[in-house]
Amino acid sequence: MAQVRIKSQKLPVKEKDIERWLALHLDLIEPGLRFICTQAHMNIEVPRGYYRQFARVDILAEDYEGLPVLIEVKAHGIRSPWVIKQLERYMNLWPTICRGIIVGTDIAPELLKEASSKNPPIKFFCIGIGGVPIG
Q1: Is residue 135 part of a domain?
Q2: Which of 17, 78, 94, 122 satisfies CB 3.0 to 4.6 Å to 98 for a cystine?
Q3: What does pTM read for this prediction?
Q4: According to the model, what pLDDT value does residue 12 have?
Q5: Over the stretch 75-128, which tens digit does the pLDDT of each residue have?
Q6: Residue 134 belongs to a domain
Q7: At a CB cut-off of 8 Å and minimum separation 6, what does 129 contact?
Q8: Range of the structural domain that residue 30 is part of
Q9: Rounded to whole angstroms, what are the CA distances from 94 to 50, 63, 102?
């Protein structure tokens, strides 16, 4: 699991701030990642009770082989398997084969095993803001 510390004077940091910073520094997550866009809307509707919502990926990137990489950003620690299920749903809805990465301040150890068992495996990337957890 990769880790990086971001220096910042401004706390608390919002998810959008992390997205903007990561969009400029995708090489810290994985060498060769190329930024495509933030808040990428999928053309597929996701049923949710009586309502329908469009799925939206926080960051869409492309790896060195041209494979889409869906990046889900959380401005807090990741403690619930819901985040894995959310990204897995996006990956299943994506029209082509893709990969997934979850970014957050820390990840519960039991979720690492669950994410790595997915096909393809979901990766995690940990960040800290000025050495202070932002969760």
Answers
A1: no
A2: 94
A3: 0.77
A4: 63
A5: 777 888 888 988 998 898 888 899 999 998 888 888 888 888 888 889 988 887
A6: no
A7: 5, 6, 8, 11, 13, 105
A8: 2-129
A9: 23, 16, 16
